[in-house]
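Here is one record:
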Amino acid sequence: AHLRADGRAREALEALGPPTAPPRALYEHEVYACRYARYLRAELHREVGEDDRALAWYAALAADPGADVYLASALYQQADLHWKHERYEEAGELYRRFLQLWSEPDARFVSRRNTAAARIGERVGGPTLAVP
């Protein structure tokens, strides 16, 4: 975590080492029972521009019924990556799921909620900032 905080995401990813199971099976593997490690791996892949790998790790978290604490953020980050690659329909669905979870976020996350709502209205169709 300190490497990431120092802006050294690639080194942090290398320090985690290779995964021992494919992302969709991780929640079955005891080494990756720690959800934070999976979330961190997703974040690091995103930060170093490995978007497909990041998407796979975020999707694994979103599919894990025990990863509730990371679900909203994983949905948002997936949506953001799909948006970046102009896959607006996929992004819109993920933004909608995110907004269902975070209709009333903490103050520091209001900008994410507003971005998600605006993007749904802008490209996918639907009300802009439909969520208060």
Q: What stands out?
A: The chain has a mean pLDDT of 79. The two ends are 34 Å apart (CA to CA). Helices lie at 2-5, 9-16, 35-47, 51-63, 68-84, 88-101, 110-124.
